From TrEMBL, chain A:
Pfam families: Acyl-CoA_dh_1
UniProt keyword rRNA-binding present: no
An MF annotation (GO) of this entry: acyl-CoA dehydrogenase activity
The organism's place on the tree of life at top rank: Bacteria
Domain Acyl-CoA dehydrogenase/oxidase C-terminal, chain residue ranges per copy: 189-305
InterPro entries linked: AcylCo_DH-like_C, AcylCo_DH/oxidase_C
Official protein name in the record: Acyl-CoA dehydrogenase
Keywords linked to the UniProt accession: FAD, Flavoprotein, Oxidoreductase
PANTHER family in the cross-refs: ACYL-COA DEHYDROGENASE, ACYL-COA DEHYDROGENASE FADE28
Amino acid sequence: MERDEFTLVRDMLRAFATRFRTGSADDVKAQTRADAQRALDDLGLTGLRRTSPPAATVQECALLAEEHGRQPLTTSLLGTALLAPELLRLLDDGERADPVHGDRPTVALAGDLRFPDPDAVGLVAWDCDGADTALFVHAEGRVTEHELGAPAPTADLLRGVRRASAEGRPVGRLTPGAHRSWQAYALVVVASELVGAARSFVGQSVDYARERQQYGQPIGSFQAVQHQLADATVLVEACTSAARYAAWCLDSETPDRALTAARVAKAEVNSSAVEAVYAGMQVFGGIAQTWEHVAHLYLRRVLVGATALATTADLLTVLAAPEATR
Amino acid sequence: MKGPTRTLDPDFGLTFSMFYISAVGKGVPAVDFELTEDQETIRKAVAGLLRDFDDRYWMEKDRDHAFPEEFYAAVADGGWLGITIPEEHGGHGLGITEATLLLEEVARSGGGMNAASAIHMSIFGMHPVVVHGSDELKRRTLPRIARGDLHVCFGVTEPGAGLDTTSITTYARRAGDHYVVSGRKVWISKALESEKILLLTRTARRDEVEKPTDGMTLFLTDLDRDRVDIRPIPKMGRNAVSSNEVFIDDLRVPVEDRVGEEGQGFRYLLDGLNPERMLIAAEALGIGRVALDRAVRYGREREVFGRPIGMNQGIQFPLADALAHLDAAELVLRKATWLYDQGRPCGREANTAKYLCADAGFTAADRALQTHGGMGYSEEYPVARFFREARLMRIAPVSQEMVLNYLGSHTLGLPRSY
Ligand SMILES: Cc1cc2nc3c(=O)[nH]c(=O)nc-3n(C[C@H](O)[C@H](O)[C@H](O)COP(=O)(O)OP(=O)(O)OC[C@H]3O[C@@H](n4cnc5c(N)ncnc54)[C@H](O)[C@@H]3O)c2cc1C
C-alpha cells in the first residue's frame, strides 16, 4: 500500500479500537461484542490481500494485528479478516475444488488450539466473532470447511472460540509451498497481536509507574520498579523485532525461510510477551489482581496466545532439527 | 586454638533437629536452628586460624599457580585434616556436619576453592578406604592423611568418561601379587602435588560384565613418576591447585593397595556420593558468603553520584536476593548433613543442597563482581577470583544437569532420560 493509504487504514483501526476497547471483564456482553464486530466489519479489511498482487504486504497486515492487540478487544480481526482470506488466496495456487459456503469464515484449529497433527480430533473454530463457518487446514494440506457449534471454553475471555463440526466440506488442497506460507503467515499474525498486547500493557504500566505515588514519590523512581520495566521493554523490543522480521521474510523470502523466521518469532513471543506482561502486572501491584482491571485480560491473551498454533516446545524441537528435515 | 580433640562432646550428633519435632507441648522449642556449642567452636576456630591468610596471599598463589603450602600446614597443624577419619586411625571421627562447617569456613575465609581444594581430599576423600579398605591399608595411609604428610588425589574422570563414569577404560590387569595399570585420566586435581592416587580402574571391560557398574576396581596407590606422566591443564581459575592430565603406562600396583574387593569399586564410590555433594555444597556456600560480604563492604564504601552505591536498589536488591538464596540453600545443606549423620536416606537433600548452593554461590559471586563495577574485573579485588572459582561448582564434580537427572528420575520417579 502507499504509505498514506496504510496510515489511513491503521488510524481507522486505532480509532475503532479505542472506541470499542473492553474497559473491564464485566463489559464483555453478547450485545457489545456484536456491535464491536459490526463496526470492525465496516472497516472492510477482509480484502486487504485479495487482489493480485495483494494490496497489503504481510508486514502491513502484521502491523494491523499489532494494533488490534494493543487494546483488549473481542473482535475477530485475525480469524475473519486476516487468516481465512489469506488461506483462500493461497488455495488459489493449489487445487481450489469447491466454493466456500460461508460469507465470513474464520479458521479452525486442533482442539488444543495448535496446528493439527495427522490424527487431530475435536476441532475448534478460533476467533469466531462475526464468523459463520471455519476453514481447517489438515496436517497434509487438505482444506475443509466446518459448521460452527457451541461456544468452547477458553481462558482468554475476549476471544470467541466455538466447537466446529467434525465433518467438513472439502474446499481444496494447499501446495506444500503454500502450506508453509500459510503456517508462517498464521504464526506471524498471531505473534504480532501478542506483541501489540505486550507492548501496550508495558506502556500502560510505565504510565502507572509515573503516576502512582508511594512514600511521597512516584513508584517509577524506585530502581526496582524502573529496572523491571526496562527489562520488560527489552523483551518487548526483542519480540517485536523477531515478529516484524518474520513478516518481512514472508514478503521477501522463500516460504522455507519465512517459516523458520516465523517459528523463531513465535517462540520468542511465547516467552517474552508473557514475561513482559508479568513485569507490568507486578508494577501495577494489587490493583492488577482485581477483576475490574484490564491486566488479567492481557495476561489471559498472552498466556493462551503463547500456546496457540505452536507451543515453545513444539517450535524449539523443530528449530533444533537439521534444516533439511524441518 | 587447636582443632577438635577427644575432649569434645562424644555425642556429637547434631541438635539441629529443625525438621523433626522433638518435644511438642513440653515448652521445648520444636525447631532448633542452633549449631551445637562444639560446632560453633569449629567455625570460630577455623575462622581464627585462617585470618592471616589474606586476599594478597590467595591472589599471589592463584596468580603463580603455587600450591598453598603455608595454609595447608596451618590446617594440618591445627589437627583439622583428620576431622572425619576414625579416631583409631589418628583422626577425630566427626560427622559430615562438622566437615561441611569446616570446608564452608575455609572457603569463606577468602581462600575460596583454592583453599578448599587443597584439603578437600583429606577431609572426606578417604571415605571408601575407611569403610572398605583393609586394616593394613588403613594403618599405612590414614594416620598420615590426618597428620598432613600424605597428599592424595582422586582419579576418576577420563577424556571419554566425564559424568558417565562407567565408560572409563583405564585397565588394571592382574599379574600375580600385583596389577599392571594403563590408561589416561583427565582433570585430576592435585595430582602434581600428590604422592598417592585413589584410582578407579576397570578390571573387566564394560562389555564383559552384566551391569556397567560391575568390573570396576579402586586402588590407593603411589603415583610412580617413572610410570605416570602428569601434565597440568591450563584453566580458568582455582589455579593454586593444579588439575592434570595423567598418563599411566604399565604402573605396577601391589594387591595390598586395592581398596576392598575386585570389581566393587564403583559401589564403594557410590557410598561417598551424598556426603561428597554436601561438601561441595558447603564450599560453594562459603565462597558465596565471602563474595557477598565483600560486595556489601564495597557497596557501603564506594560513592558515586554523591552517595554510597549500596543506596541504589539496583545494587542493594541483587545483594539482598543473593543473601536470601544463600540462606535458603544453607538450610537444605544443614538438613542433608543432619540426615546423613543420623544414618537416614539423604539423596534428595544432598543433591538439592549441591544444586542450590552451587547456584546461590555463583550468583552471589556474579553480583559481587557487578557491584564492584570495573574494579570487579581487576585482580586487585578478590571478587574476580571468587567468580572464576564459583563457576566451577556448577560443573564439577557433578554438573547441575546431573543433579536434575537424579531428582527427576530418583526423587520424582520420572523415566530416566539418558
Ligand atoms: C577444575 C576441575 C577439577 C576437577 N578435578 C577432578 C578430580 O580431581 N578428579 C576427577 O576424577 N575429576 C575431576 N574433574 C572432572 C569433573 O568431575 C568433570 O569435569 C565433571 O564430572 C564433568 O564431566 P565432563 O567435563 O566430562 O563433562 P561431560 O560429561 O562431557 O558433560 C558435558 C555437559 O553435558 C551435560 N550432560 C552430560 N550428560 C548429561 C545427561 N545425561 N543429561 C543432561 N546433561 C548431561 C553436563 O551436565 C555438561 O553440561 C575436575 C574438573 C574440573 C573442571
